[in-house]
Amino acid sequence: MAYTDHRTLRRVLRREIVGTIGVLTDEHDFRAMRRYDSFVFDDHPTYLKHVEAVLRTRALEGSHTTVALFDPEEYADWCTQHGHDPDSHLSRSRFTAERAVTGPAVPYDGRPLSDLMTTLVDEAVRRVTWEYATMLLARLGPCASCGEDLGHAAFTRASRLVSRILDSAPPGDRHLVCSVSGPPESLVAVLHADDTDDGVRIDDTEALEFTTVLAVGLATAGPGGLVMRISTPGAPDRIHGWRIRGHGLVPLTAGEVFDAYCTDTETGEIIPPESDVDYCASPDLTDADPGPDHRH
Length: 296
Hints:
Shape: globular
Strand content: 15-25%
Number of helices: 9
Distance between the termini: 82 Å
Low-confidence stretches: none
Oligomer: single chain
């Protein structure tokens, strides 16, 4: 009886343990792991089927699982740095546990693994974009004339502009996209601002990433732009846009917003406009931004 009770208690405790699994999201990463004898899978589709089966089984058992992005190159570097054998499942599990804390990771919520991997890759791209944008701002250094931190000044101005855009927008769920072009990499960030009974709901991490990318555009005077799509039940979607110019945002006319949305950026060809969408002139934010500008 005591033995049975011990088994029962341990089974209960096992349900309290959370788990993490690192997933190889593409064929290239999968092939890189096949050089290890302890990695026993032969093809990527079969590997993904087994991963999904494990996730579903753990969910049925009431266990929580976090799915992390597994990068073979980072794994090899980590093993070299810490003196671990890369051809070992113990090393892989330790690496995955660390990446669940420091790298892109999402909880398994019953969605198909393909959908979950898309979310995971998007999260990885967001993180890389934010880190790169932050590095660009830090590299600006102080102003040669007054010593002000140029990156901080640009971020402060970007924060004011984002707040003003959201405050002046009509009611509805707002989807904002900011893009900044330029060598060596283009930056794109997205911000969702949804109307709720308690006010506007914004993800703080998303807002930080979006503001940082806009700050890069302001600090470097673009080229780039910001568009906002507002969705309200029972009404056409409204689309507004601004161009990043001269360390600020220049509002687009309705015609310019239409052209931006209805032109293929790669080929220059006309794209048919969406139905039930209004392409609208955008408000001028200059007078509504009383904060100091760093212009010298």
